[in-house]
Design a protein that fits this description.
Length: about 700
């Protein structure tokens, strides 16, 4: 399949910018990709999802995290086994699939200079929202600061977020898309003379002499900071089920990287496991990219993410199965189907409730684990260190910005900068923004059939105020908390539509009876592309939770002034459903119906726990039951934790199995940390030989 067929050439929010095609080879055959994109993304764009086969059982290998945290995507790149998701594509690269164990080859070492030593006031590990916010505060105080990130641009996960953010407009750019917030923060940093940005730089280790080793583009650097701020974010949790390591089963963050950063059409039919904000947003991003989402499963009785996120995908036709879990992904070389089942109160699957779908992708979005190993090691060595953002506590990006700002000010104070004031409300705002969805209230749409007015399809307390902030007549407010309280409309609306355009949850519509009392116009926000709309055509309209209300006619649409990439869709609706109309159905229920008969499911113990070494849950459980409590002993017997990821994905899963077996944390001896947290060639530590 040609690369063009697997590229996203039309997206409602994202645009191609300055791409340059380069030639490379894959398994000896000529190929073309985009210069600077991840090598793995270039292969996905060619329709290649199987990167090789494991030496232990010949199982197909593909991608899981797309963030350098696992080793699923390892390829031979110019003769060296490397994680292809963090290797920028260059012209002339020779890329080969990894079939079994790589051969030992006589290869030249990296052409880099001898290690350089650098001293700095503050070293920030991570260029996401918390790291950038901290760098801005430190830079404003004139403190020498280095911010390091392994990507080619600042922003972290912000660069993957095409949706508008919640929170406060004044404090964290609420109502602005994540991709644009990343640019705003990066622009601020660029203006600060005391802040140095190191991109494409991988932190290898924290050492006992108070230094940090960093592999930069131009060589290995040893940095000695007065203060170390860990803003490294989080890595995706894995979920062990049969087929979870098949190509096509990967993390929601990996999906967003492929789709929203690299504009690669990596799937056609998707099933999502996990109903937190990450899973719900991934479903929406898939719909934006023109993919079919056949369903989403959540083990809890309700989705853990914001209700407005769940509602907006339901309105578009995505079925959400609460109290369900995934049993298996099916396929030989790649994902071909998925099976889920209902669970009881103890999360045990209920026989006879299985449902299967034909899919090519299963997205795993079951939470995040902090990347905090750098902080643990720095604390062990007595370094001055703090954490910010997800490395400290998993929360939304808006909360991470507050966390970084607070920690940046605190570090400046500890470094002796005078007149440092940390406003008392900063901590309060940070805690509010960390809040999960709050209390749910009954849905009570207005029963009005005259004039023009907004309908607020927002029934859960969440930290958000853009609709209140943007109203030119201050007609939307809250009787409760200024950020967490439910918005309420009072007064005489002028029909400006700003509240419809700004709402991050797409939960505001405008109903206009001024022209007709029988067929009023309902304005809804639409972010899936005007090419799906045809003026005069009839569409199925849905209510706030996705119930089908009836039919409406598209009267037209327009771009929302001042709100990039938001379309205001005008629907001519019957009067009796106008105030309840919240969206339109874009997925045909018949096309996403499950198979008539569920597929046969392998045993749970067949699930792979250690992806690098292909160690199953059954094998881990057997050794634990035999009395092994030292993870290093388990590692020596099974090789679990021996792989290139350094136990980043399997350690938490082994801990989970121990818990299931009734073994507490104090009974377990943890894995011994490796001296380096990322694998690298030894030549980087010595520099090139001039002779």
């Amino acid at each position: 399949m040609s690369s063009q067929e697997e590229r996203i050439t039309r997206h409602p929010v994202l645009e191609e910018h300055g791409i340059r095609k380069v030639e490379f080879t894959f398994n000896g055959k000529p190929a073309v990709g985009v210069e600077g994109e991840a090598a793995s993304s270039a292969l996905f764009a060619m329709g290649i999802h199987v990167f090789g086969h494991h030496h232990t059982d010949s199982s197909a290998q593909g991608m899981f995290c797309a963030n350098g945290q696992c080793s699923q995507c390892t390829l031979l790149i110019d003769g060296i086994p490397r994680k292809s998701c963090i290797v920028p594509l260059e012209a002339g690269m020779q890329i080969e699939s990894l079939e079994g164990l790589p051969e030992l080859r006589d290869l030249p070492g990296p052409d880099v200079r001898p290690p350089l030593r650098t001293d700095t006031g503050v070293l920030i590990l991570g260029g996401g929202p918390s790291g950038m916010a901290a760098a801005i505060e430190l830079g404003k105080k004139g403190i020498d600061t280095i911010i390091v990130d392994d990507k080619d641009r600042l922003g972290g996960k912000l660069v993957l977020q095409t949706h508008k953010f919640f929170g406060s407009v004044a404090d964290c750019h609420a109502g602005t898309r994540g991709i644009h917030i990343a640019l705003l923060l990066a622009d601020e940093i660029e203006k600060l003379e005391s802040v140095d940005v190191w991109l494409d730089s991988i932190v290898l280790g924290v050492f006992s002499d108070g230094t940090v080793g960093i592999r930069c583009v131009d060589g290995y650097r040893i940095v000695k900071p007065e203060y170390l701020l860990i803003a490294t974010g989080a890595r995706e949790k894995s979920l062990p089920f049969p087929g979870s390591t098949l190509p096509g089963a990967y993390g929601a963050g990996a999906f967003q990287t492929l789709v929203n950063r690299d504009l690669v059409r990596c799937a056609e039919r998707i099933f999502i496991v996990g109903g937190g904000n990450v899973g719900l947003i991934a479903a929406y991003h898939a719909l934006q990219a023109g993919m079919t989402v056949v369903g989403l499963a959540e083990a809890l009785p309700v989705c853990g993410g914001y209700k407005v996120h769940a509602d907006k995908i339901k309105r578009l036709g995505v079925p959400v199965f609460t109290r369900h879990t995934v049993l298996a992904a099916h396929g030989s070389e790649k994902v071909e189907a998925v099976t889920i089942a209902e669970v009881d109160d103890s999360f045990t699957p209920l026989p006879g409730t299985e449902k299967s779908w034909k899919v090519d992708t299963v997205l795993v979005a079951v939470g995040l684990n902090p990347v905090d190993e750098f902080h643990r090691k720095a604390s062990q060595f007595g370094m001055k260190t703090m954490m910010a953002g997800d490395a400290e506590e998993i929360a939304e990006a808006s909360a991470a910005m507050f966390s970084g700002k607070i920690q940046g000010l605190q570090i400046a104070r500890e470094l002796g900068v005078e007149d440092i004031s940390i406003p008392s409300d900063l901590h309060e705002k940070a805690e509010v923004l960390k809040s999960p969805g709050g209390e749910l209230f009954p849905y009570d749409p207005p029963d009005i059939r005259e004039g023009v007015f907004p309908v607020l399809h927002c029934m859960q307390e969440i930290p958000c105020n853009p609709c209140m902030t943007c109203c030119p007549k201050d007609l939307i407010d809250t009787s409760g908390h200024p950020i967490m309280g439910l918005p309420e409309f009072h007064g005489s609306c002028v029909g400006c539509e700003k509240c419809v355009a700004v709402c991050p949850g797409l939960a505001v519509t405008l109903v206009d009876f001024r022209e007709s009392s029988e067929r009023p116009l309902v304005t809804i926000p639409f972010e899936l592309g005007e090419w799906l709309l045809e003026k005069g055509s009839e569409v199925t309209v849905t209510g706030w939770e996705g119930s089908v209300l009836g039919k409406a006619v598209i009267a037209g649409w327009k771009k929302a002034a001042g709100f990039p990439h938001t379309t205001l869709l005008k629907l001519e609706t019957p009067a009796d459903i106008a105030c309840r109309t919240a969206g339109i159905l874009i997925q045909d229920p018949e096309e996403i119906a499950p198979l008539e008969e569920p597929l046969e499911v392998p045993l749970p113990d067949d699930a792979i726990i250690c992806r690098c070494e292909r160690v199953s849950a059954g094998e881990i459980r057997r050794h634990i039951r035999s009395g092994i409590r030292d993870m290093n002993h388990l590692k020596a017997i099974t090789r679990a934790g021996f792989g290139a990821c350094g136990g980043k994905t399997c350690a938490a899963l082994i801990e989970r199995i121990c818990s299931e077996e009734g073994i507490g944390g104090r009974e377990i001896t943890d894995f011994t940390d490796r001296p380096l947290f990322a694998e690298t060639e030894l030549g980087w530590f010595s520099g090139a030989d001039d002779e």
